[in-house]
């Protein structure tokens, strides 16, 4: 159907490249490390992130951004959210000025409190009609294994969203469209923070009642912030909200839940970060989401307590006790 440049050779960037290739596109991945790019092009395997998955022959990789962008009909970004701006400023002069940009990233920038679509707009000047996000219950290893899944492609321009929908509709991946970029991005970012809290509960040895309670209150907290900022409440009930939340909180494949489990067992943030090359976005975005909630005047106890545990100011056990000790009120307040 076309040519797509995917900037990011991690698990999710590679998995989404498989989706794009299965939908009929030629895909070129830009990767930071040349040896990973060479392995993808030569043997069609991402040895560092998806070593057991054979990539389609229509996927190649390069360390040269100009080569990755050659003839691209769309550009997809899948790099850690907190380093995205610096990378994008480097790529911006090379980016085409007439194709859509797609964010797969689920975070809010520290300091500026901007969503990734806002960072793209600010750095490139592309405008919301050319900026889309993909968000949903999409654990990368399951997507790469072509297990059936659905997601949301959101863009302010519905025609662009539909065009991108066609570009990633494969035999195993069903995308829906939306114009609520804000709701999709906040749902995707906040679920990582909730998954950290769920992981802590699991690490402490608690069962399904506890985790279900955290998930449900996490959804309520996410919806409070998103709707206060202008999102459609229905978005938070859909794939990019509840769907992504359930997948990330329930699966041991989730980086954020796994990170939380280790915190629950007593490991420090520094110890966990040093033990893996995978990025748990929630550990970095919890402070920016908390700041955004405070700036908006929204009560955010889960983000507040998760941020305290990640920063080493509170233990996971203390966090769970603090949740129970909070003042009682009506559920809908």
Feature tags:
333 residues; Rossmann fold; 16 helices; 12% strand; alpha/beta; eight-stranded mixed sheet; N-(1-d-carboxylethyl)-l-norvaline Dehydrogenase, domain 2
What does this structure look like?
The chain is an alpha/beta fold. It folds into two domains: 3-179, Rossmann fold, CATH 3.40.50; 182-325, Orthogonal Bundle (N-(1-d-carboxylethyl)-l-norvaline Dehydrogenase, domain 2), CATH 1.10.1040. 52% of the residues lie in helices and 12% in strands. It has 16 helices and eight strands. The protein has helices at residues 11-22, 34-43, 65-69, 84-91, 116-124, 140-144, 158-167, 181-203, 208-228, 233-237, 239-250, 255-264, 269-274, 281-296, 301-310, 316-325, and strands at 3-7, 26-30, 59-62, 74-77, 101-103, 131-135, 149-155, 173-178. It has an eight-stranded mixed beta sheet with strand order 3-2-1-4-5-6-7-8, sandwiched between helices. Helix 2 links the parallel strand 2 (26-30) and strand 3 (59-62). Helix 8 runs antiparallel to helix 9 (208-228), helix 8 (181-203) packs parallel to helix 12 and helix 9 (208-228) runs antiparallel to helix 11. The protein is globular.
